[in-house]
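Good morning C.,

I know you're traveling, so I'll keep this short. The sequence:
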Amino acid sequence: MPSLHKGSCQCGAVRFEIAGEFEHFFLCHCGRCRKDTGSAHAANLFSSQANLTWLSGEKLVKTYRVPGSRHEKSFCTECGAAMPRQQTDGAMLVVPAGSLDTPVNRRPTAHIAMADRADWDNGLETVRKLEGMPG
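The tokens, ready to paste straight into the viewer:
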């Protein structure tokens, strides 16, 4: 029986289910993924066989493609949260790990595009860790 994953956007207007397994889980440090997330890397799950079903809000999902590239990002037009997308060629379903509401049952496969990572993204394991917001 295939795994069933559920997810949503930040405002709750978009909800979806994914039936199937993920083959890869990449943490991509390329400049485009850093722009997409505003962070050190994107965390995306990939599947060539899973099926995406929109439960609500599909019309609120927009996909932006960087001109002259294959780089795309789908997002909720209400809250801006990253959403799943089927690659243009249909070969791969790409799911932002943070968009899932159910547990992710695999660890990341690899950090990729490390040669392009942010200059401040080195030795982050040594940065002070807080349980909540700074006070």
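Safe travels,
E.
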